[in-house]
Amino acid sequence: MIPRAAVSCARAFENDAHIVSLISDKKKRANLRYSFEFYMRGAIYGGSEAYATSELCEGIAIWYSSERKEPWDLVFRCGNPFLTLRCGFRFFWADMRANNLCKKLRDKLAPKPHMYLAALGVDPSHQAKGCASALVKPMLKRLDKSGTPCVLETHNSKNVDMYR
Length: 164
Hints:
164 residues, alpha+beta, four-stranded mixed beta sheet, 9 helices
């Protein structure tokens, strides 16, 4: 199921301005699915939560707890060395810098404990059909019940209203 979900996410982000700035080479951007496979494996092996719209994986959401600890060997078990080879060192370093910056901002601005929406992607052929809401609303309801805040970042201003 992870490869199918990764393909949906890669299709959702392949023309995203932030991703294009990280991976300008369209041929390397075709390998973006490996990045999403890496993140999904990290979520699953690292005890976080990943959800799909259905077995067809039209969309996925990955949630991390702010209490999550990432052991060094998890990065290797999830396939990071291969990710670098497939997407390029430029992507690897730029993605690491962006993730570190976002983590510093979360540490500074977000109360702990909280849940972090690390990825939300819907295959373009299924966008504007309520998939993103279907993926996010159950977690938001659960977090509201427990009084746990949630955090996300977006690099796409058109998504801000949806997240509100």
